[in-house]
Design goal:
By secondary structure, this protein is of the alpha/beta class. The protein has eight helices and 13 strands. The strands form three sheets. The chain has a nine-stranded mixed sheet, sandwiched between helices. α6 packs parallel to α8. The chain is globular and about 45 Å long.
């Protein structure tokens, strides 16, 4: 069953005052919502004085994390289409004494980003929006060259036990989440509109954090200045890129990960597997090897409560074997 935008907004308006209680139900299922939010804000790499837009800010659950990064000299803009959720966010802002927060009631698709922002955070919102690609494109154009887009959302799990998945969907249905919500491959749009794209899968693959940085400029720019067709699902292949260096390096991932799986390649470097289109974090088996200077992909699986809690990939511009990436 598919919910209309009006029905979803009505569900959030009616459930706004017990929304945080519903979040606690997900925590009872082992879903570490607070850790995922902290990770998403960490990946934005915000500095003091930064200007940030949060799409689908809801009750302002992420505001304290963002305020710690940008400080009083920064600016935080929260956007949501539910007046009841914004009322709770406004009360949170007033109680915390934040004078640099602006709350805007607007449909996410219709929202016009201010120019020159340093970061965009979208938490639990793109699954409701069929026009998510358009929103991601506009966000990339509004960001400064060093700005980042981070998406925290849900998708169909790869390794989550069926009973947990059914319970999670039962709780989430109260706010209009259906199977269709989980079928929004926002990482494909992020790859299309940013030169770098990182993807982390958590909670058995049901939760993901997608990061885009180095936004493309001008007309939709392809690899090495070539155009990309707006309907293309994957970037075209072409000449291999130089290794990442300096500020172009991908975000640092958790250091305590217990094991790391890589494929050997000529010269002792790690091979770059091609990601599956259905599951970008799941590499296809390939015996193809590349030349020196190629960028590698590494997938890491720490276990938490018998679940593959985190799986990470970083994609960059395509080389001769498809999309490539690296971990710092």
């Amino acid at each position: 069953m598919r919910f209309s935008k009006q029905a979803i907004q009505a569900r959030y308006d009616s459930g706004a005052w017990h929304y945080d209680a519903y979040v606690r139900l997900f925590r009872a299922l082992g879903m570490r919502i607070g850790d995922y939010r902290s990770r998403a804000v960490e990946l934005m790499r915000l500095r003091r004085g930064a200007r940030v837009v949060e799409l689908g800010c809801g009750t302002g659950s992420n505001f304290s994390l963002l305020e710690q990064r940008v400080g009083a000299e920064g600016r935080l803009i929260g956007v949501d289409n539910s007046p009841e959720m914004l009322a709770l966010a406004r009360r949170r802002v007033e109680e915390s004494g934040w004078s640099n927060v602006e709350l805007i009631e607007s449909d996410i698709v219709a929202y016009e980003f201010p120019a020159g922002i340093d970061g965009v955070l979208a938490s639990g919102v793109f699954g409701y929006i069929s026009e998510y690609d358009r929103v991601i494109e506009r966000a990339s154009r509004a960001l400064v060259s060093s700005g980042r887009l981070v998406i925290l959302d849900g998708t169909r799990p790869e390794a989550l036990p069926a009973p947990l998945y059914k319970l999670a969907m039962l709780f989430a249905r109260r706010f209009g989440v259906t199977g269709e919500y989980l079928d929004r491959p926002t990482w494909e749009s992020t790859q299309r509109h940013f030169r770098r794209c990182a993807l982390e899968r958590k909670y058995g693959g049901m939760i993901y954090v997608c990061t885009g940085w180095m936004p493309r400029r001008g007309r939709q720019e392809g690899h090495h200045g070539r155009g990309v067709h707006p309907g293309a699902q994957n970037p075209p292949t072409g000449e291999p890129r130089a290794p990442l260096a300096g500020d172009d390096r991908p975000p640092a991932h958790l250091e305590h990960l217990p094991r790391e799986r890589t494929s050997a390649r000529r010269g002792g470097a790690a091979a770059c597997p091609r990601p599956s289109r259905r599951h970008p974090c799941r590499p296809r088996r390939s015996s193809r090897s590349g030349g020196s200077g190629a960028v590698a992909v590494r997938l890491r699986w720490p276990l938490s409560r018998s679940l593959p809690e985190s799986k990470s990939s970083v994609f960059s511009d395509a080389g001769s074997t498809g999309v490539r990436g690296s971990h710092a």
